[in-house]
């Protein structure tokens, strides 16, 4: 069963009154009943981005008297502060006693990729509305998981709604400072090498901090059909013909959809040559897109003429394309752009706006 069906997130002004053995309740009475068993050997399993299963062992004594469980769930960084605003007020979750294991689920208090601590009390609700409680169990630590492909498909559907019409393009480009390209030539055998993706975008993204790749752009200016001359990432630009990175031997994956408290929305896509290490990583974690028919980035064979490839990108989102393999600079050209370096537009480690209804889904942020 789902614990959320029988659980409330308690606030200080509405928390249940409780008392341990021999302590005074709020009406001044004394509880003299047998102590309740303390949960032992707590186990956490089946962890997702916004749920987990919990079970524990208990001594048989007074087991039949247990009516509720009190679960103290805290983000790990706060585990030593403000555990109780008042010693007789539990801070977190109250659940009816049900067979174990049981599932704790709730996007309003569980977020993906977040470390938590959890401790449990057993409780017995009394006729006067108070609770007799056990001592707290040991504190257990665990970390919630990334978004699953189910959650990413929900993000994908939201992104498709606002992608807009498709515009033609012919090159991928990457802006960096001059030193970056000098280093690639002199130290990396004339190659740009993949690096670990930063923590920008959705907090639950399964590629953040894990997938290795090289970021490229492909968006064009609506009035010129060419890449913009401004960039937040540097005044030197590497341009490469689109078919060098994107062709029928490449798989395309949807990675993320987010905004940064602005009207602009970003879609992260992953280009992975079939059979590559990046491709194997994405197969297990990301929705696969049809390269000839999707709302973001397409590659199609021309039926007439020389049978070459044509490419289109979505107009109304900013595409961040991650290519998972090294790229030789000899495949393209490096030149200085004429525009400005607009640092305010950088998405490096950018935090997603958790309140945006356009790009959030109903799971932990």
TrEMBL record:
GO cellular component: cytoplasm
SUPFAM superfamilies: Fibronectin type III
InterPro entries noted in UniProt: FN3_dom (IPR003961), FN3_sf (IPR036116), Ig-like_fold (IPR013783), PHYHIP/PHYHIPL (IPR042868), PHYIP/PHIPL_C (IPR045545)
Domain Fibronectin type-III as annotated: residue spans: 38-147
Coiled coil (residue ranges): none
CDD domains registered for this protein in UniProt: FN3
Start and end residues of each stretch annotated as Disordered: 1-35
Superkingdom to which the source organism belongs: Eukaryota
Family designation: Belongs to the PHYHIP family.
Function: May play a role in the development of the central system.
Protein name: Fibronectin type-III domain-containing protein
Gene: LOC116322190
